[in-house]
Amino acid sequence: MLPVRMKSPLKPDNSLDLWLGKPAPRYTSYPPAPFFHAGVKAVNYQRSLKSLPPDQPISLYIHIPFCRNLCLYCGCNTMITNRSERIDRYLASLKHEITMVAALIGTRRVSTLHFGGGTPNAMSSPDIRSLFTFLRNTFDFSGIGEIAMELDPRVSSAEQVQTLADCGVTRVSLGVQDFDAEVQSVIHRIQPYELVAELCGWLRSTGINGINFDLMYGLPKQTPKTVTDTARRVCVLKPDRIALFSYAHVPQMKKHQKVLEEHGIPDVYERLELDQLARDILTDHGYQPIGIDHFARADDSMAKTFHDGNLHRGFQGYTENEASALLGFGASSISQTSDGYFQNEHDERIYQSTVAANNLPVRRGFLLSHEDRVRRAIIEQMMCSLSCDIAAICDAMDYPLAKIATAFERLDPFVRAGLVSINGATLRLTTPHRMAVRVICKVFDTYTDHASTLISHTA
Ligand code: SF4
Description:
This protein is of the alpha/beta class.
């Protein structure tokens, strides 16, 4: 291995104080999910579903909230089980929920289908086949663009991969995090390089060529060497896309994360260095940086979408797809329509009993005002393109630019520190530290300032 060295070592930089380690949402929605509330109910979701434009395709998200073991860094909504009867019961409720929604919207065209978790491949192969058959019988899959599934390499098998290929899966995301054995031991996720390499081989041999890796920095025991070695080994396996996430340490919400503090968690400056090291290696290997934390091979469609300014951001991160609605199914899943957001019950039992009583299991949500939609559009464009013509958005959405003017005043310190430039009403991130855009977006967010303890920190 080559010595570990950053191309652009960190220099003393006063502008870091303005954003590094500051609480700021990741803006996979606006307002962010902590602002969803119980005043939004199933009846609001029903109304919104009934008013979906009939000729527009929809996106589907299916949440499978089960894992075999708990990873100590986990921030997802999941439950630990090895009991197949429990998963089967959940899948029966899931199908019932889908049937109820389909009764309201009819046989819609589906543009994308995404399975997240948890561990979607905790489902057995017969369960996967049965769920796909059910979905194809319920919705119109004839023009579907992408079927994606998050996979845990530790529970994958060649037989399961063949099932996924038979069912039409075109893209998978593999949770990799870090290949170092000591890091894996501390975070309770033992997953050697060879295991991931073997899985990539199975996927490609069955024709599933859309392969994403999820990496993470900021974990205990991670060093410049572990992150550098991991990034180099990832490049050997040639995934099309890579997400490089910062670890969100929120033990006040995820108690199991507290244990990780015994091993020491890198501080914000160390995290920034790890991020920079990984970025340098990925870009040296031809990966194009996309948004704040994604990378794609230059010939990948996401790289083109990013350069064309057509990228979107949602609960699954960056996406090329802009459907009229994203309908989420399963415990804790979130649906998004032009009216707002609707989140299902987190609790598996309440979710199942609500569905059994023939009610949609909506627990909370948020209904958007016109101003919310304008601010959402500005924040989404900044998060995706790192620049935004705010006047053009206000114009297109028939909203007075003057009402956004106070946000421009609050940008002043960021402009003076060289983090952003303003030309007319066009804002552009000018720092190479892309994560800083989260703090810039907060200027346009009328909710987050008041509850920053609910929000993860940058880097
Ligand atoms: S596999 Fe993913 S969802 Fe499951 S415990 Fe680990 S990090 Fe959490």
